């Protein structure tokens, strides 16, 4: 009983960490740029030109720090997803392999968000300043961000969220049901082998659709866009499977309950 409790506790701790990190990521990528802009002071900031940045060591230091944080996250997320590392973790951590991967990813993302340095005095790629754009552009961005996050949450319903977070593996292990992937269809296994980021389009919308594209935000959007593009490997068969699963989920949700049918 004790090992089972330890396994369940570790998996739940990883899940809670990942969930809280996801909430913080929404604030970091959406609420801060939409409600606070790139300036932390709340007042007007004199911004430099693009060429001036090359001579400003404080801006370059901040960008280098942010780049290092992003590379740390990308390196951890990619390295721990390789078959060699997954086999090593499975050998030493067993059924907690997925939970450990999720926890390390959450910790790496926490480092990015905690130590990210805004560059309020840096140049901007675009910025809504004059009316009516200063009113309507942030509102439009807010609507698109809300839609994107709702789509992200709905897409996660199509997938086995408990399995993505490592909870289902521990649950099956404790009950002696084996490996959850062994019970999945060949089409599902094919999808999981191709898919690293099921919400690429929505995340790209969140990254790029902002009223002010400052220097640090541009760095964040460019690097994560490149990473998402390289890691995204869906094809037509995967998309057909996703569409079938979504229709199945929607049918189950829309089916009347027994009490309502009467």
TrEMBL record:
Sorted alphabetically, the Gene Ontology cellular component annotations on this record are: nuclear inner membrane
Predominant location category? nucleus
Q: Which residues form a coiled coil?
A: none
- Looking at the UniProt entry, the stretches that span the membrane are 100-116, 136-159
In the UniProt record, the signal sequence range is 1-18
UniProt key word Transmembrane helix: yes
Highest taxon above the source species? Eukaryota
Spell out the InterPro entries in the cross-references: Nurim-like (IPR033580)
By its UniProt entry, which PANTHER family does this protein fall under? NURIM (PTHR31040:SF1)
What is the protein name for this chain? Nurim
Q: Which organism is it from?
A: Erinaceus europaeus
Lineage of this protein's species?
Answer: Eukaryota, Metazoa, Chordata, Craniata, Vertebrata
């Amino acid at each position: 009983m004790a090992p089972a409790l330890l396994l369940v506790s570790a998996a739940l701790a990883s899940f809670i960490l990942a969930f809280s990190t996801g909430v913080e990521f929404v604030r970091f990528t959406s609420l801060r740029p939409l409600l606070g802009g790139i300036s932390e002071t709340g007042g007007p900031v004199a911004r430099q030109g693009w060429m001036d940045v090359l001579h400003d060591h404080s801006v370059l230091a901040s960008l280098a720090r942010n780049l290092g944080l992003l590379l740390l996250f990308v390196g951890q997320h990619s390295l721990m997803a390789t078959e060699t590392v997954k086999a090593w973790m499975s050998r030493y951590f067993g059924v907690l392999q997925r939970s450990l991967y999720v926890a390390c990813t959450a910790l790496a993302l926490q480092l990015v968000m905690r130590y990210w340095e805004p560059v309020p005095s840096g140049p901007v790629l675009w910025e809504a300043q004059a009316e009516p754009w200063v009113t309507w552009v942030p509102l439009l961005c807010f609507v698109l961000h809300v839609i994107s996050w709702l789509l992200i949450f709905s897409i996660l319903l199509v997938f086995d969220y408990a399995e993505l977070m490592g909870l289902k593996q521990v649950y099956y292990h404790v009950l002696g049901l084996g490996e959850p992937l062994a019970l999945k269809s060949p089409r599902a296994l094919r999808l999981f082998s191709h898919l690293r980021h099921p919400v690429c389009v929505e995340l790209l919308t969140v990254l790029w659709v902002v009223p002010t594209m400052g220097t640090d935000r541009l760095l964040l959007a460019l690097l994560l866009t490149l990473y998402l593009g390289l890691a995204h490997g869906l094809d037509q068969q995967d998309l057909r499977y996703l569409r079938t699963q979504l229709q199945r989920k929607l049918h189950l949700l829309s089916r009347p309950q027994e009490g309502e049918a009467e």
